[in-house]
Specification:
Elements lengths: L6 E2 L2 H9 L4 E3 L6 E5 L3 H11 L8 E3 L15 H10 L4 E6 L6 H4 L4 E5 L4 H8 L5 E2 L14 H8 L6 E2 L11 E5 L5 E5 L5 H8 L3 E2 L23 E3 L2 H5 L7 E5 L12 E3 L6 H16 L5 E4 L8 H11 L3
Parallel strand pairs: 1-8, 4-6, 5-9, 10-11, 12-15, 13-14, 13-15
Antiparallel strand pairs: 2-3, 3-7, 4-7, 5-6, 9-10
Helix pairs in contact: 1-5
Bound molecules: threonylcarbamoyladenylate and magnesium ion (MG).
The site of threonylcarbamoyladenylate has 28 residues, from strand 5 and strand 6.
Length: 322
């Protein structure tokens, strides 16, 4: 098998491997996932093994449409149902009380399962062809930057999986926003992501943000050090930070402006036109690109704290050295 032959466009090959209990990388509009049959414990175990992911970190299940959700969960609180109607398929994950058919390994023992309806047309067709949901975390080694192209997956997990279903670069570029309801029937946001808080609030009013970043996170995607490149990344005013560093060995992640003193091949300007969607789409690929450059440090600036800037800043803070 040549090195790249496992990247392909065949939904049939992906489906056949998944039916056999293998793990397959799949495209979604947020990031690439590492999918496996969510109802098959040994298939799910492969995901944890391939990603080197701790088993206390639960997985999201993926379904082709919201109508299917009720086969796997006990009930759907009205506010979550409203959000699902409005924003699925799309970058939203909802936490619901699971039925017994969902193995405890998927939820790491929690009575709640995270459910998502991805918008990517290839994965929608794939899911329609399967008679089980796919458990799928982001297809990266645990703690590293999430992949937004098939090649990103191949670069890190290529020798551990049989097939990467190529759906092109991800449109959203940030993982889904995770929400649940609490005992007071309020919407809580467990992970900021590709669906903005403003969009959610427009439908259900005020939401509670659970900014969990300590030692016992309820959503381990919220661990303080996550999404991190290997080259140390420092947040702040990029102009000041780079004033004293070697311009040839410095990487920059900027929101919309280019910094002339730094070598242009080490600079990622996320969105020259100041568009948050574009910035989100470019963020992880930019971090990965700089991580592959021969540099000593990456300086990054925070985005305006609004719209998708909120989730982008969350990822930048988690990727930065403390
Ligand atoms: O956009 C996405 O959500 C991508 C694509 C592939 O769908 N998936 C993704 O999965 O980001 P992952 O595993 O990298 O992050 C899922 C996060 C984890 O931090 C996990 O802790 C949280 O969701 N999560 C999953 N199930 C949960 C549960 N039952 N209760 C609380 N948090 C849960
Ligand atoms: Mg992840």
């Amino acid at each position: 098998m040549s090195e790249s032959s496992f990247i392909g466009h065949s939904i049939d090959i992906a489906a056949a491997l998944l039916r056999k209990g293998e793990a397959v990388a799949i495209p979604t509009e947020t990031v690439y996932g590492l999918g496996a049959n969510a109802l098959n414990v040994s298939a799910v175990a492969k995901i944890f093994q391939i990603k080197q992911r701790p088993t206390f970190d639960p997985l999201i299940i993926h379904l082709p449409s919201f109508h299917k959700v009720i086969d796997y969960v006990e009930d759907i609180p009205e506010k979550l149902s409203l959000l699902a109607e409005k924003f699925t398929p799309g970058p939203l994950t909802i936490l619901l009380k699971k039925k017994d058919i969902i193995p405890d390994m998927v939820t790491s023992g929690s009575p709640y399962v995270a459910v998502r309806i991805p918008a990517h047309p290839i994965t929608k067709t794939l899911l329609e062809n399967l008679d089980f949901p796919l458990a799928a975390p982001s297809a990266n080694p645990f703690g590293y930057i999430s992949p937004t192209t098939a090649q990103h997956v191949a670069d890190q997990l290529g020798n551990k999986i049989f097939y990467i279903l190529d759906g092109g670069p991800c449109d959203v570029g940030l993982e889904s926003t995770i929400v649940g309801v609490n005992e007071h029937n309020e919407i809580e946001v467990f992970r900021k992501g590709g669906l903005s808080i403003e969009n959610i609030s427009a439908v259900v009013g005020k939401v509670i943000i659970r900014d969990i970043s300590n030692s016992n996170p309820e959503a381990p995607g919220m661990l303080t050090s996550h999404y991190a490149p290997k080259v140390p990344m420092i947040l702040g005013d990029i102009r000041t930070l780079s004033a004293t560093s070697d311009p040839l060995r410095t990487g920059i992640i900027a929101f919309n402006n280019f910094l002339p003193v730094i070598s242009s091949k080490h600079q990622i300007v996320l969105t020259p036109s100041g568009n948050f969607q574009e910035a989100a789409k470019n963020l992880f690929a930019g971090m990965r690109y700089l991580d592959g450059c021969d540099i000593d440090v990456i300086y990054a600036e925070l985005m305006p704290e609004t719209n998708l800037g909120i989730a982008i800043n969350d990822r930048l803070r988690r990727a930065a050295v403390k």
